[in-house]
Amino acid sequence: MSVEIAERAGFCFGVKRAISMATEILDSHQDSTEPIYILGEIIHNPQTVEMLEKKGAISITEEDLEKVEPGKLILRSHGAPLEVIEKAKKLNFEIINTVCPFVKKAQIISNKHIESDYKIVIVGKKEHPEVKALLSHSGFKAQVIGSVEEIPNLNLTTDDDVVIIVQTTFSVREFKNIIGEIALLSRETKVYNTICNATFRRRKGALSVAQKVDVNIVVGGKNSSNTRELTNFLKDSGFLAYQIERPEELTKDLFTQVKKVGITGGASTPMWVIEKVKICIENILDSR
Ligand code: SF4
Hints:
By secondary structure, the chain is α/β, with parallel strands linked by helices. The protein has helices at 13-28, 46-54, 82-90, 101-112, 129-137, 172-185, 197-210, 225-236, 271-286; strands at 3-5, 36-39, 58-60, 72-75, 94-97, 119-123, 143-145, 161-166, 188-192, 215-219, 241-244, 261-265.
């Protein structure tokens, strides 16, 4: 076989759950005039957002909440900030929260430490919606860092007790470095490894295929942090990898002197997009 799809490529449990909750609501309200909104991208995948919009979902931002007629409001799998949920409730929206249970677990840990003397550190990408929501669940008491270089910003002393929570899709390698450094600078360090198992399993599957092929194609939304991490993981492991969002981005020159191709996809990539990419690559290889 010249093109192989890695095990665990594509939708993870949390994304499948969020899409199925949203689809169920939309399908059961086809005859209703009540508007159904999605706050932000339910997952970082444009094809899935388009599919839900075709079923009647209206994508809105937090700023739109006050401008639109209240209705059902679907919140994303990455979680939403508490103040946004409260604001939507006050404006009479009915909340359908599709937050992934693994993300929810990190939010609960974050919330549990608000009243404690621990300094709360969230390891993750500051601009990622999941991290913004986590920060809100810490009562904005947490500090966010995304790399070892940012640790000095925490101003830690050996009198500090620190609790660390991590974005579910964060790089394991970088997380290890960060917790090691923080442990050396503080009195007590409590680490909650909230990196999701789906990430480990997807990487394992991608690695196993990467060892057998000449080039890897990683499929996922341009805004998808976990897809980017997956691509970087393959590159850092010494494999040739390209990230694409749509099959149309594939060009012949990516496959010069290539005999075998591996495909994987981020947690928010539908399998039908991955299958389409596979067919497209097979056509390119056959046409040479
Ligand atoms: S990657 Fe993990 S934490 Fe994120 S939505 Fe999927 S299952 Fe949940």
